[in-house]
Design brief:
Blueprint: E1 7-13, H1 20-36, E2 45-50, H2 57-67, E3 71-76, H3 82-93, E4 99-102, H4 113-122, E5 127-132, H5 140-155, E6 164-171, H6 172-178, H7 188-195, E7 199-204, H8 218-232, H9 235-264, H10 271-304, E8 311-314, H11 325-328
Parallel strand pairs: 1-2, 1-4, 2-3, 5-7
Antiparallel strand pairs: 3-8, 4-6, 5-6
């Protein structure tokens, strides 16, 4: 590949005013280092996507863009969540670059792994997944919940790369095809494997967050897992169907047993067995209705075809700024 690729590093941000001043120079240094090594074009950029932050994150981004044109920023009209903010950056950047690398701005992911990602791209890979080589730095609880998260996703039919979050290289060619995925309920780490193309993985060590607090506690991780499963797989519905068949068979056997006991005159009235049966079946029915309702709710949202993100502001030079009078000012 003779032409050096233009790289856009896409970084979603939500309330990151504490960590952004620390990590932004590191991203800039990485861009310069790879450009000096001849791996990427000097016109490569760092694209921050402000996901409706309530602190001074957007002000920091606009100031960075004024000081250095390598920094660019998009501001969403409201908080849409990490996945939609990341999607916004990728789709907005795809017409202006050859490759993108998505990464969080907290400094936990090893920035130097980008060198290996670009090397894999230059060798022919269209998608390069950043995968944690170990979780030795995590607490037992964090390690257990994270590993359970990935196992649950795969067992429920969501095709994901184990120990991979959203640190990945994606080519503009892949993003062009990915733009045809129109669903509103998105789970990017499970959707990119569906696109196909040649892919590989790069392994790296993850560090502690440089500053600020994590925006993904256990509650959000569980919600993300459930959203990923119901967005990418119908296996929960099939499990409910199988459970219903199994309970029906057992119930039919109990009916036969009750009839035989009644005919034999040995039936004994008992409230415990009745209460247990009613409680068990009632609980299963409510859980089943809840899961089915989740799918119905997703269908409801999909049929509305609402936009997945709305960009309210752009820094000068950012993707789409040429059509935004406010960004030109």
């Amino acid at each position: 590949m003779d032409k050096r690729p233009v790289l856009y590093i896409v970084i979603p941000c939500y309330n990151e005013e504490e960590v952004l001043p620390l990590t932004a120079p590191l991203f800039r240094e990485q861009i310069a280092r790879m450009a000096d090594a001849g791996k990427i074009d000097p016109e490569s950029r760092i694209l921050f996507v402000n996901d409706g932050s309530r602190d001074g994150t957007w002000e920091i981004i606009t100031e960075l863009s004024r000081q250095d044109p390598h920094f660019q920023g998009l501001c969403l009209s409201r908080n849409r969540g990490h996945q939609n903010a990341l999607l916004c950056g990728l789709l907005e950047a795809r017409e202006h670059c050859d490759i993108t690398i998505s990464i969080d701005c907290d400094g936990q992911d090893d920035i130097r792994a980008m060198d290996s990602m670009v090397d894999e791209y230059l060798s022919g890979a269209e998608i390069v997944y950043g995968v944690r080589s170990s979780r030795a730095t995590d607490t037992f609880f964090k390690r257990f919940t994270a590993q359970s998260f990935y196992r649950l996703l795969n067992r429920m039919g969501a095709d994901t790369v184990y120990n991979h979050a959203d640190y990945r290289l994606v080519s503009a060619r892949v993003l062009k095809e990915f733009a045809n995925f129109r669903e509103v309920n998105i789970f990017l780490r499970g959707m990119f494997p569906l696109v196909g193309f040649k892919s590989t993985s790069v392994y790296y060590e993850r560090s502690e967050r440089m500053a600020g607090k994590s925006h993904y506690p256990l509650k959000k991780m569980l919600a993300l897992a459930f959203d990923g499963i119901t967005s990418l797989s119908v296996k929960p519905i099939r499990i409910i169907t199988g459970l219903g068949v199994a309970i029906s068979v057992i119930s039919f056997g109990l009916i036969l047993y009750a009839l035989i006991a009644w005919i034999a005159g040995s039936a004994v009235a008992g409230w415990a067995s009745t209460l247990i049966a009613v409680a068990l079946l009632g609980g299963i029915q409510l859980i089943s209705l809840g899961v089915i309702g989740e799918y119905v709710g997703k269908i409801f949202l999909e049929t509305k075809r609402r936009p997945r993100y709305i960009v309210s502001e752009r820094t000068p030079g950012a993707p789409g700024a040429e059509d935004d009078p406010a960004a030109k000012a």
